[in-house]
Amino acid sequence: MVENQCVATILIVDDNVDSCRNLADILSAYGYDVDIATSGTDALNLVRRRDYLIALLDLKMPEMDGITLSEEIHRECPAIIAMIVTAFLSEEAEERAKNAHIDQVIAKPVDVPRLLSCVREAASQRVKHSSPTSVS
Questions:
Q1: Across residues 97-126, what is the average pLDDT?
Q2: Among candidates 128, 114, 122, which has minimal Cα distance to 32?
Q3: Report field, pTM of the whole predicted structure over 0.70
Q4: Domain coordinates of the chain in residue numbers?
Q5: Which of 10, 32, 78, 103 would you label with 117, given CA atoms 20 to 30 Å apart?
Q6: From residue 93, how far is each of 26, 87, 89, 135 by CA, in Å?
C-alpha cells in the first residue's frame, strides 16, 4: 500500500491515544513516517528534536488546544504545515484556524481519502518549495 515516494514526517497530536494510533496506522500504511504525542508539551519536545513536514493537531485538548499548539510549533519551526483534526467543527473554529495559518481543518470521524489527499498535497508543495531552482 506504500505510495509515498519521498517519506514525509508527520506528527500526530491528540489527547486520545486511540485516535493517534488509528491515524498513525493509516498514514504508516501509506509510507509516511509518523510520531505521536498525547499533549502539547510532548509535541513541542518532539518538534525540538525532529524535523516534521506536517503536524495533525486535535483542536480540543486539556493542556493546550490545537490552534495554540500550532502557534507554539510555528515559533519553533515555521515551515511545519499544521492541520487541525476535530470532532468540534464550527465556523468559529475554522475562523480561528484560518487566522492562525492552519492549512486544513479536517472533521472527525476522519474521511481517510480526504486526509490522504491533504497530506499528499502538503508533501508535494513542500517538495516544490524546497527544490533547488536553476540559476542561469
A1: 90
A2: 122
A3: yes
A4: 9-127
A5: 78
A6: 25, 11, 6, 43
Return d(Cα 77, Cα 115) in angstroms, integer: 22
Secondary-structure class of domain 9-127 per CATH:
alpha beta
Query: Angle, to 10 degrees, between the axis of helix 66-76 and the axis of helix 40-49?
Result: 20
Q: How far apart are the first and last CA of the chain?
A: 41
* 25/30 Cα distance (integer angstroms): 9
* DSSP code string of 64-85: S-HHHHHHHHHHH-TTPEEEEE
Give 56's Cβ-side CA count (13 Å radius). Answer: 29
Neighbours of 38 (CB within 10 A): 18
The span from the CA of 16 to the CA of 27, in Å, is 17
Place of cell 514525509: 8
